[in-house]
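Action item from last week, closing it out:
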Amino acid sequence: MRYNTLANTGVLVSELCLGAMTFGGKGFWTNIGKLPQEEVTNLVKIAIESGINFIDTANVYSEGLSEILLGKALKDLGLQRQDVFIATKVRGRMGEGVNQVGLSRLHIQYSVNESLQRLGLDHIDLLYIHGVDPITSLEETMRGLEEVVQSGKVRYLGISNHPAWMVVKANSIAGQMGWNKFVALQNYYSIAGRDIEREIVPMAAAENLSIMPWSPLAGGFLSGKFSRQTQKAGDSRRDAFDFPPVNKEKAYDIIDVMQDIASAHNVKAARVALAWMLRKKGVTSIIIGAKKEEQLRENIASTTLLLTADEMSRLDAISELSKEYPGWMVERQIADGR
């Protein structure tokens, strides 16, 4: 297991991050996973023993149950607090009240306090805002985030599912006010969904932000269970919850190349998809989820798969993004070397 720096903080996080979305299973979240405490604790144990020191959850996962199960697993395993880096999120609806959702200072304060109680911790290492709040100003949100950092309840800040311009604007506000800035981005990124390479990846490089891809296997579509011949896996969350959106015809072409490379290495296609992502520019830690021990161990093994330059080129070519404006114009105009 390799460790990468979280932006310019000096904090080292493992190149794989254990995602806790499958923990619990309540309401809508049963479509993702419904692991009970014993299995949650076992997965956390395996992850820690493999060298993973980074675990990601969210207050909305299973309506708070994911945080509760993760907190108990950490306690039952007797882990030293400084040996594990915990991320959670704020924004989603956590009750029926009109203010129990969003990114107001009010909701941020309540949510952080409630997450800490569920997790059984005295601080959150990394707090992400989990999406855009269309009615709350970025100034209000950044002030609320600064308050929870200054209170000692949160160490670092991250942002998820936002366009690049909003990230830069939010950090500009924080910089002008002398507040803490975002240091991490959590976005959907997979070999079948490379959209963030248009604007977000270049922005992250320019702003020195860490990228933490979620759903690197495209919600299981790249697990090796799906092909043109097998469009229903029978035991994948994709069968019931077809998310995130994927251009399936293009994805099948990608899977064909992945399967060919996987066969050459005598591994599964999922390992190839993760190994490809581990080599992508700007990626700090990939969030991997699992419902079974075997699945987690298979994903962890991706860290030992070294793809050749030719294999990376083949994967890059088959999954390449179509050119969009202004990208193609920028490429044309800088072709003279300026």
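Closing note: The chain has one domain: 3-333.
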